[in-house]
Amino acid sequence: MYYYRVSKYNPKLRDSFGNYLADDWTSYSDIGKMYLGKKLTFEEYKKVELSYIKFVLFSMKKTNIKHLKIEKLEKYADREGISTLSLESEMLYNRIKINYLVGVNELSRVLELQLRDFIWTKLTSDNLTIDFGYDYYMYVTSKQMIPYFHNSKFGKNIYIEENIKSPYTDV
Predict the structure, then answer these.
(1) Residue 56 CA from chain centroid, whole number
(2) What is the pLDDT of residues 141-154, one digit of tens each?
(3) What phi, psi does 107 have (nearest 5°)?
């Protein structure tokens, strides 16, 4: 198995125990607040969110996965917040459930719901598992190595660290 931790946190800013040392944003709800001397704007947030989505799509493409199954799901009842998204995202929120198959065409919206804290999911296939943690961490487990990638492909918005298992993997 191959393991990847995806985060917006620069590994150079971790202590010897892996703790991130900078005071940085961790959630969609942090938009408008000050971090690292700058106000987090929706535009800056969206750049990071899109990098996560691109990495999942990249991983699916490189491992020949056409859909992911929602193996675990929690829905949070922020109906007012969901209504600020597109009608398609709101309708998707209403229809997804455990064992729902998410195709590439719906994946961006599912990940948007996930990354904005409207849902929590574990997405799986025979070859690929995507787990989400607290504080904007995402873990990718693959039966095959995801071919060489450059962090630069995803901008300076995310960091992909190899050989870090998800703490949420079922034992």
Answers:
(1) 8
(2) 999 888 766 555 56
(3) -60, -45
